[in-house]
Amino acid sequence: VALAPQAESCRASSSISTSTYNYLSSPIAPRTYLLPSSTSRKRKTSAVELELAKRQCFPTETGEQNVDIPEDLQAAIEWKRLLNTVSARKSRMRKQKRLQELEDENAQLKAQNEQLLKGLEVLAALVRARDVA
Questions:
Q1: What is residue 114's DSSP assignment?
Q2: In which residue ranges of the chain is pLDDT below 50?
Q3: What's the whole-model pTM score?
Q4: CA geometry: angle at 95 spanning 4 and 99, to 5°?
Q5: Where are the beta strands (DSSP E) in the chain?
Q6: Are 1 and 78 in contact, with CB atoms under 8 Å apart?
Q7: Pair 51, 59: CB distance under 8 Å
Q8: Could you write out the three-class secondary structure of the chain?
């Protein structure tokens, strides 16, 4: 499944850097597992179920009713999974960026707090010196 046309439009419409775009367009590992996972049991979306039901009610010209997912629907499922994977990557990147911003703000506020405490100590020392004199 190729990602080129949609990826180009996504790249043009958002402020994603080139390095980020390369990360998002990196290849996705094929799903070739020996045993099915617990999440792989849900293979069909509701749209696919509906389409299969329509096709079974109205068989093809050959009269066969295939219970496997047809290639066009399988391609749609793979495309949806690919988009979901890219979306998850983007979400993780936004989360990481937000966390970094919060850590930077925290460091800045700690430094500001230390500076204010030092200023308070200087003022307290001036008040004590004035009271003594």
A1: H
A2: 1-14, 65-66
A3: 0.48
A4: 140
A5: none
A6: yes
A7: no
A8: CCCHHHHHHHHHHCCCCHHHHHHHCCCCCCCCCCCCCCCCCCCCCHHHHHHHHHHHHCCCCCCCCCCCCCHHHHHHHHHHHHHHHHHHHHHHHHHHHHHHHHHHHHHHHHHHHHHHHHHHHHHHHHHHHHHHC
